[in-house]
Amino acid sequence: MSCPEADSPVRHEPINGARQAIAYLMSLVRDDPRPYQARAGGAGHPIRALLARLGDPHIGLPVVHLAGSKGKGSTALYLEAILNAAGLRTGTFTSPHLQRWTERYRVDGRESTPSAFAALFERLRPHVTHLQRENAALAPGFFDVLTAAAFSLFAEEGVDCAIIETGIGGRLDATNVVQPIVSCITSVELEHTDKLGDTIEAIAAEKAGIIKRGVPAVIGTLPAQAARVIRDRAARLDAPVSALGQDIELMVRPSSASERSIEVRVAGRIYRATLARGAAACNAHNAALAIACAHRVAGNDEARLQRAIGEALIDTRPPGRMEIAGERPWVIIDGAHTQDSIRALADMLSTFPADNLHLLVSLSSSRDAARLLSPLLERAHRVVTTRADPVRSLDSEQLAAGLVAQGFDTARVQAIADPYKAVLISRGRLAHDDMLCIAGSMYMAGVARDALLSDGPVQPGLR
Fold first, then answer.
1. How confident is the model at residue 460 (pLDDT cuts 50, 70, 90)?
2. Taking a C-beta distance cutoff of 8 angstroms, is the pair 440, 337 a contact?
3. pLDDT of 228-252, one tens digit each?
4. Mean per-residue pLDDT for 35-52?
């Protein structure tokens, strides 16, 4: 990665810690009032210009590209575990993070260290500065730089497979500069409607934008109208499609009181595995998609891949996704934030032997809270609202007022602005046979993991 002295006459203090790196990244967030489609319409140019200065590290990088309304993070982690167990080197880029920014970059299943994270952006910054001086309006923004850093890191590490998760949508996403070896669309729901469109067909078209000519596509169980849009694009591009429930057969059976065994049939081959304790039905679906992707990447050695799948999946627990964080009383952490994911979460909770359900939620300001949460509110004994992220999350009092306005009993709703206090207070109220469900966003899931599963809040500067 060259950086000619003439390109960088402006001197900065070196980025020598994660806190400084995060402050630098946040300085790249743009306050742009234009609609997403308008401002993202030229999304390819800023990141392509930056990647060109970095030597185009994305070109020739073997990529599995993941999009979807939900499930793509879990699918990415399952795929990472399988390929690592099969002896392949992986690089995984996911967003958002749960607890630490360094989670977004993983090599061989290990997240970046704070020092490596800082060094990565210190190397990129001169190139970003050069492009800002050339044309500020077309310079790389926050997610462009995050994404370019992933490609640069994975190329330097010489990974055998880069697992790249889209940020929003797909067609206009900064990650869509790649030429993948497999494209995967896990699900399509109404989400980010202010950016992607307010119909399933419109959102499906955005997700379908990651499908490339001749590149195999793996898709989850989708609404009929979404599947039609995605298959139409794949047909135009001669991209073969494997769909869960059709070309990918999944059979799930309980193997014990708390485990699920799965059998996945892909292209005439059968792969078997037992999922980690507490895995829900959606985990089985995401694991099946990961197996289908792994079959495309490493299926040339069937015996090795079968061993890898068996070894990897029993020990892989996607954090913040229907995660059991405590028993008797039960504590469940889930980043569910769409109607289907909330419904799936409610179905999963109904299998637990709990007397009273306590609900702790934080939602983004764009959510219709009562409608979204209705499957959980039907059972909830008490609801606490909070604000997991000071920018992206709805004010806790406003969220509580919205639930009351829609008919939820005001005596059973409480707003607690501080999310850490909200977690600890909610947990402290539980009786032995009660359950606490913490949901609404991945930001909320991250706070809950900090409060309940860590020694304390994440070191300042890393969250």
1. very low
2. yes
3. 999 999 999 999 999 999 999 999 9
4. 77
Phi, psi dihedral angles at 266 (to 5 degrees): -135, 125
Residue 381: other Cβ atoms inside 10 A: 14
228 Cβ neighbours under 8 A, 6+ residues apart: none
R_g (Cα) of the chain, nearest Å: 22
193 pLDDT band, cuts 50/70/90, is confident
Q: 55: which 2 tokens?
A: 């030597």
* DSSP letter string, 15-47: --SHHHHHHHHHHT-----S-HHHHSTTTHHHH
* Amino acid residing at 95: S
- Region of residue 239 (phi > 0: left; psi between -120 and 50: alpha; otherwise: beta): beta
- Residues 55/1, Cβ–Cβ less than 8 Å: yes
Residues 6+ apart with CB under 8 A from 237: 211, 212, 213, 214, 215
Tokens of 388: 């997991």
Q: Is 216 exposed, middle or buried (0-12, 13-18, 19+ CB in 10 A)?
A: buried
State which amino acid sits at residue 266: V
3-state secondary structure of 48: helix
Exposure string of 348-378, with b = 16+ CB inside 10 Å and e = fewer, is bbeeeebebbbbbbbbbeebebeebbbbbbe
Please name which of 114, 85, 109, 86 lies closest in space to residue 99, comparing C-alpha atoms. Answer: 114
Spatial distance between the Cα atoms of 215 and 210, rounded to a whole number of angstroms: 10
Residue type at 305? L
Strand order in the sheet with 323-326: 323-326, 330-333, 435-439, 357-361, 380-385, 413-415
Query: Can you read off the two tokens belonging to residue 168?
Result: 């929003």
Distance, C-alpha 131 to centroid of its chain: 29
pLDDT in tens, 402-413: 999 888 889 999
Dmax (CA) for the chain in angstroms is: 68
User: How far apart, in whole angstroms, are the C-alpha atoms of residue 406 and residue 367?
Assistant: 14
Mean pLDDT of all residues in 159-174:
95
